Amino acid sequence: MEGIELDVQGLHGNPYRLLLGDAKDYFVMQKKVQSKPMIFSDDIAPRVAPYIHHAVQTHGKKSFIWFGTKPWVILNEPEQIREVFNKISEFPKVQYKFMKLITRGLVKLEGEKWSKHRRIINHGLFLFFIFFALLY
Prior knowledge:
Keywords: Heme, Iron, Membrane, Metal-binding, Monooxygenase, Oxidoreductase, Transmembrane, Transmembrane helix. It is built from seven helices and two strands. The chain is mainly alpha-helical. Strands 1-2 form a two-stranded antiparallel ribbon. Strand 1 (about 65) and strand 2 form a beta hairpin. The relative contact order is 0.10.
């Protein structure tokens, strides 16, 4: 059902495949790219995110990939990214059951708790960056 809703919104991608979605192709392509030596050029997208790059080349800038049972919308335009960050309460983080077992802290938090912890961490990160800037 989600694939149809995404299509109506002008997003294009592969049809949903049971349970894994595009995850298998994603990891196969990632492994293939990492097995080759790195060529230094200005075009790093095929090296850093090969499957996402492939999806954008195949389906256009307004596209999505299936990661498991969830669609991941690919955002390319700064305006789109800004909109998501400005309306963070309307775009909740995807919660995977296994994430509770392996993650903690800021990654897992949302809403007011995230804001509070981010403010606390921000001062420490600022001092950290100043310290390293002075070293170099």
